[in-house]
Design brief:
The protein is α/β, with parallel strands linked by helices. It is built from 5 helices and 5 strands. The protein has a 5-stranded parallel sheet with strand order 3-2-1-4-5, with helices on both faces. Strand 2, helix 2 and strand 3 form a beta-alpha-beta unit. Helix 1 packs parallel to helix 2, helix 3 packs parallel to helix 4 and helix 4 runs parallel beside helix 5. The longest helix is centred in the C-terminal third of the chain and has 29 residues. The two termini are 29 Å apart. The model has no long low-confidence stretch (mean pLDDT 96).
Length: 171
């Protein structure tokens, strides 16, 4: 049985569904404590209940990671609650598909705001905490389109490429 996450304090953005929720459940199964960050409070509350049902500790924090102050406050809330942060995973992501010539300002701001800036707003305060405590791991969830732009996904591909570069720069 894998136990790398035993007793680790883990923050996961985009934890309401999909990969974020599955990571949270796996970390909980391994004995980690999980802070679930997402916009959909009902879904992160359900995930927190699932974690508690298997004996894991979890807190659910409703936050829009594209809001710098709110994201930073959420990460600091986790630190205040458990006293440290061992792993921060920037998983929140959105996609808008379509022809680049028809990309709206609102769509571009949404995708870059969540996929790139939202990751930075979660990872930056976590990094500061980790540097102070002398340990920790940062992760950002990206995809193949960060390396090869995909048709109909120009802004998504660009946001993931920028995220990869950010992550490479902070390691």
């Amino acid at each position: 049985q894998r136990v790398w996450y035993r007793d680790k304090i883990c923050v996961i953005s985009g934890a309401s569904s999909g990969l974020g929720k599955e990571m949270a459940l796996e970390i909980g199964r391994q004995g980690g404590r999980v802070a679930l960050l997402a916009r959909r409070k009902d879904l992160i509350d359900q995930c927190a209940d699932q974690l508690k049902d298997i004996g894991a500790q979890a807190i659910a924090i409703k936050v829009d990671v594209s809001d710098c102050e709110a994201a930073e406050a959420a990460v600091r809330q986790v630190h205040e609650h458990w006293g440290r942060i061992d792993v921060a995973i920037a998983n929140a992501g959105v996609a808008v598909t379509g022809r680049p010539s028809r990309l709206s300002k609102q769509d571009a701001e949404l995708v870059v705001g969540v996929n790139l800036l939202g990751a930075i707003w979660v990872l930056r305060p976590a990094l500061e905490i980790m540097l102070e405590q002398g340990s920790g791991h940062l992760a950002g969830i990206s995809c193949l389109s960060a390396f090869v732009g995909l048709p109909q996904n120009a802004i998504y591909s660009a946001s993931k490429a920028a995220l990869n570069n950010f992550l490479q720069a902070v390691r």
